[in-house]
Structure formats: C-alpha cells, structure tokens
C-alpha cells in the first residue's frame, strides 16, 4: 500500500496470498481498510497478491518472510499477526513525524 499524508509520502505495502481466499490476509486487509476510514482520502492503498505473477518479484525484493505482511516505509511492521486498529494507526502516525 502507498500512503500520502499531509504532503509527506509514506509507503505502506500489504503483501497477501490473496485477501479474497486467505482468512489471515482478509483480516490484514480489513485492518488496512479501517486505517483508510480514519485517514480518509490522504491514504491510497494497494494490495500485492502473491497469486499474481507480477507481484512475486516485489515480494522477493522486499524479502517478505510470511504472508500476510505489512511494510511501512520499507520496514516490516506486521508479519502474520494482524494489528489492532489502534496499533496500526499509531504506527502510521509515528511514520508521519
């Protein structure tokens, strides 16, 4: 996912097997969508599904250890465990500083 907030570009990426078929991936995307509700139009999100060939190279480049995973500004922030709404919003706000 890519996020632009208050003129500061923050890169947020979520790597999933496929949020339509993987329960944990669905929950991770759900957490990301909740953050979208909080930050509104300031957030632009993109999901990288491992089931799409073009996304496999990105997963390898980022060194994604597990699916689902969430990276913010190129750093792994959440791996397999889905963050709470408060936890994810706190990480996004910290990245804004």
TrEMBL record:
Gene3D superfamilies: Glutaredoxin. Pfam families: Thioredoxin_3. Residues 19-92 form the Thioredoxin-like fold domain. This is Thioredoxin family protein.
